[in-house]
Amino acid sequence: MCLFLAALTAAVIVFTSACVAKPRQYSLKGQVMDISMTGELIVKHDDIPGFMPAMTMPYKPRDPGVSQQVRAGDLIAATLMVATNGNYWIEDVRITDQSGRTAARSAMVTQALRVGEKAPDLPLINQDGKTLHLSDFRGKALLITFIYTRCPMPAFCPRLSSQFAKIHEHLARTPADYNKTHLLTISFDPKYDTAPVLRRYGLAYLDNDAAGFSHWDFAFTNAADLRKLAEAFGLTYFEEDNQISHSMDIVLLTPDGSVAQYWATAWTAAELEEALRQQARSAASVATMGAAGMKR
């Protein structure tokens, strides 16, 4: 019996392993332009046959130590891994030329807010043309991401918005958490992503239900304030060939407006949702305890 169970277990493991799709692999060569505070390498790379044309994109090394070894200006070669769920990362990163290395890492990295520091309260304009500030969401846990609506890469901005849509849908099933959380998508492209454009874009992810905007705002700001937000959150972005290359950082703010957590390319909607719920419940618990203490 034991031998039978062992053989059956081994067979199940082999069968399961065979059914799990392996990540696709591609060869990547390019120059590191910057390094984000979450450890992504912003790489201006050559064509990646079968995946994407030459462009500048963020890539998260599987080995976090790579971000400490590589510097802006380095030429690198690496293996790009793309999972079926849209996650991607680079492995086997090799520095092939250091002659273009800069003396220091980008100032954007050093200026990024640390966990516990307050986010800047800059004006934004949402999909309804209404001016809002991050302080308007005080009392709620706030999950922020950055996109641009013309993004042509399914694994990037569309993926971010699709995953936020799942989080929005799941939270709506729990009114207590729904009312204590908020989602905010900010555009990297204020010249194109005006309020009407963002409204159309947002409705596509809200099943055409405008009521969803009460929980999920799509917003833009002027170029100067966008740069300030990017520096505050350690984001890298720049326009190139009528497209915007940018890192994919996601930021969670506490109900008092402080940075709680950052994510780069390796995350799941479930992970983001759980962190958002926990942040909201934690704040609610503290508020309840404080009110109970005052009654005493």
What does this structure look like?
- With 296 residues, this protein is an alpha+beta fold.
- The protein folds into two domains: 24-97, Beta Barrel (OB fold (Dihydrolipoamide Acetyltransferase, E2P)); 112-290, 3-Layer(aba) Sandwich (Glutaredoxin), CATH 3.40.30.
- Helices cover 32% and strands 27% of the residues.
- The chain has helices at residues 2-19, 66-69, 107-111, 157-171, 175-178, 195-205, 223-233, 269-295; strands spanning 24-35, 41-45, 55-59, 75-82, 88-97, 124-126, 131-132, 141-147, 181-187, 216-220, 237-240, 243-246, 250-253, 259-263.
- The strands form three sheets. It has a seven-stranded mixed sheet with strand order 7-6-10-9-8-13-14, covered by helices on one side.
- A hairpin with a 5-residue loop joins strand 1 and strand 2 (41-45).
- It starts with a helix and ends with a helix.
Summary tags:
OB fold (Dihydrolipoamide Acetyltransferase, E2P); 8 helices; Glutaredoxin; 32% helix; single chain; 2 domains; globular; 296 residues; alpha+beta; five-stranded antiparallel sheet
CATH architecture of the largest domain, by name, is 3-Layer(aba) Sandwich
Q: H/E order of the elements?
A: HEEEHEEHEEEHHEHEHEEEEH
Can you tell me the overall shape? globular
Main β-sheet description: 7 strands, mixed
Give the assembly state of these chains: single chain
Portion of residues within helices: 25-40%
Instruction: Enumerate how many helices there are, as a single number.
Output: 8
* CATH C-level class of the largest domain: Alpha Beta
Question: Which fold does the CATH topology of the largest domain refer to?
Answer: Glutaredoxin
Q: Order of strands side by side in the largest beta sheet?
A: 7-6-10-9-8-13-14
The radius of gyration over CA amounts to 21 Å
